[in-house]
Each structure stands twice: as C-alpha cells, then as structure tokens.
Automatic annotation (TrEMBL):
High-level lineage: Bacteria, Bacillati, Actinomycetota, Actinomycetes, Mycobacteriales
Protein name per its UniProtKB record: TetR/AcrR family transcriptional regulator
Domain of life: Bacteria
Residue ranges for the DNA-binding region feature of this UniProt entry: 31-50
PANTHER family, sorted: HTH-TYPE TRANSCRIPTIONAL REGULATOR BETI, HTH-TYPE TRANSCRIPTIONAL REGULATOR RUTR
Domain HTH tetR-type positions: 8-68
Organism: Nocardia xishanensis
PROSITE patterns in the cross-refs: HTH_TETR_2
SUPFAM superfamilies hit by this protein: Homeodomain-like
Length: 189
C-alpha cells in the first residue's frame, strides 16, 4: 500500500522552517524530535517529507546555499563588476543579523572536511558557485586564468575575514581590513 503523496507546497514551507530552525540552533540540534517540536509538527511528518535524517540535512544545506547565493546575487544586481560583487558578498556575510547563518556555514564546512562522503554535495558547491559568479564579474578582456586566480583570492579573503569577525567580534578592525581589500578591487585596471 502506497503512502500518502507529498504535498510539495507544504514541504517547501516545512523546509524553510527547518532551515530557520537549523540556523538558530545549529547542527547539534538537527534530529527528529527537537526539529519537529521547533517547527510544530510530528517527527513522522518530517520523515514523510524529507526521508532520513541524512537526506533532511542535505536538503536543508541545499536550501540554505540557495538562499545565501540568491540574496547576495540580488544585492549585487544584474551583471555586477568584480568590486560590486565582492562588496555585496562582504556586506551580506558580515551583517550581524547573519551571524548564526554563517556560524552554521562554517560548522558544516568543518564537518564536511572531516566526512567528505557525507557532505559531497556541499563540498561540490561551496567554492564553485562563488567561483563561477565572481569569474563572470571580471573586468572585460581579463583572461580566464587571471579571473580564476582573482576569484579564488576574493573567496578566500572574504571567508577568512568572516571567520575572524565571527571568532573575535572585532567589527572595526575586521571591517577596516575588508575595506582595504575591497578598495583594491575597485582600482583594478
């Protein structure tokens, strides 16, 4: 006997609620009972919509990735130059309202490096999404190899600055360093 079909609209609503819960509570609380209680459904409902706990984690990470990427892309506007794209990434990631989101991002990053087979999809996208976007934002007539090196530098610098900010909370110092770095992108030939 087949189970009831999944209501995709309800699944999307639940997924957004589970993502919000995970951002607020972290990975350690990502198990059926706490999540179900946190979003106001039964554990059975979560299993029906998301399958196993591991499948739910993959789906949550994918939705979070989509949200982060879309919000930054929207902030940068259509066809931004490299400096505008990098600044949009920094502004969004360093926003104090996003601290929990990026703590979760780095927690997942660390776990993914320890268990790459479990987090293969995360690792496949964690650099390539941003790399593709930043390479597209390059200065006209920049060769692809230079665009790739520059995008790599931008990603690594912003992530390093963000880790520093999350670890120390020293906003003035870290933002000053970010401004110094971002200004070098604005004055590229």
């Amino acid at each position: 006997m087949a189970g009831r079909p999944v209501d995709h609209q309800r699944r999307d609503e639940l997924l957004d609620a589970v993502v919000d819960y995970t951002v607020e509570h972290g990975l350690s609380e990502l198990s059926w009972r706490p999540v179900a209680a946190g979003v106001g459904v039964s554990p059975t409902t979560l299993v029906h919509h998301f399958g196993t706990k591991e499948q739910m984690l993959q789906i949550v990470l994918e939705r979070l990735r989509q949200r982060m990427f879309a919000a930054t892309r929207d902030a940068a506007g259509a066809h931004p130059d490299l400096a505008t794209a990098a600044r949009a990434v920094w502004v969004r990631t360093s926003d104090p309202r996003r601290q929990a989101e990026f703590r979760l991002f780095f927690a997942v990053y660390g776990r993914a490096l320890q268990a790459p087979e479990q987090f293969a999809d995360f690792l496949d996208h964690v650099v390539t999404d941003w790399m593709t976007s930043l390479r597209e934002a390059r200065v006209p007539d920049t060769d692809p190899e230079t665009a790739t090196r520059t995008a790599t530098l931008v990603i690594a610098t912003i992530r390093g600055l963000l880790l520093d900010l999350l670890a120390t909370g020293d906003r003035d110092r870290v933002h000053g360093a970010a401004e110094s770095f971002l200004s070098t992108l604005e004055h590229r030939p």
